TrEMBL record:
It comes from Pseudoalteromonas denitrificans DSM 6059. Residues 1-63 are annotated as: Disordered. Residues 41-56 have a biased composition (Basic and acidic residues). Residues 1-39 have a biased composition (Polar residues). This is Flagellar basal body rod FlgEFG protein C-terminal. It comes from the Bacteria.
Length: 104
C-alpha cells in the first residue's frame, strides 16, 4: 500500500493553497491602497470644484473595485483547500501509523 503519493499530494495541495492565500492577501492590500488613492483623488477634485464653482454639485465618489470581492472569495476558497489538504496529510499519517503498528 503506497502512502507516499497521498501524503505528497496533500503537501503539494497545501503549499499551493498557501501560495494562493498569500496572493489573495496581496490583491486585497493592493485594491485597498488603490481605493484609498481614488478616494484621495476624489476629495481633491471635489475641493477644486467647490473652490472654483460653489454652486455646482460635487462629483460622486468612485465605486470600489470588484477585485476586493473576488480576492476575498478566493481567500475563503483557498482556506477550504488548505483544510482539505491538511486533512489528507493527517489521514495519510494515520494510515502510515496504523501500518507500522500492524507490521511490528
Amino acid at each position: 500500500m503506497a502512502i507516499s503519493p497521498a501524503f505528497n499530494s496533500g503537501v503539494q495541495g497545501f503549499q499551493r493553497a498557501s501560495q494562493e492565500i498569500s496572493q489573495s492577501a496581496q490583491d486585497i492590500n493592493r485594491a485597498a491602497q488603490e481605493q484609498q488613492a481614488i478616494r484621495n483623488d476624489q476629495i481633491d477634485r471635489n475641493k477644486a470644484v467647490e473652490a472654483s464653482r460653489s454652486d455646482e454639485v460635487a462629483i460622486q465618489p468612485a465605486q470600489p473595485p470588484a477585485r476586493i470581492d473576488e480576492a476575498l472569495v478566493n481567500l475563503k476558497v483557498e482556506q477550504f483547500n488548505a483544510q482539505a489538504n491538511a486533512k489528507t496529510i493527517e489521514t495519510a499519517d494515520e494510515v502510515l501509523g496504523t501500518l507500522i503498528d500492524v507490521r511490528v
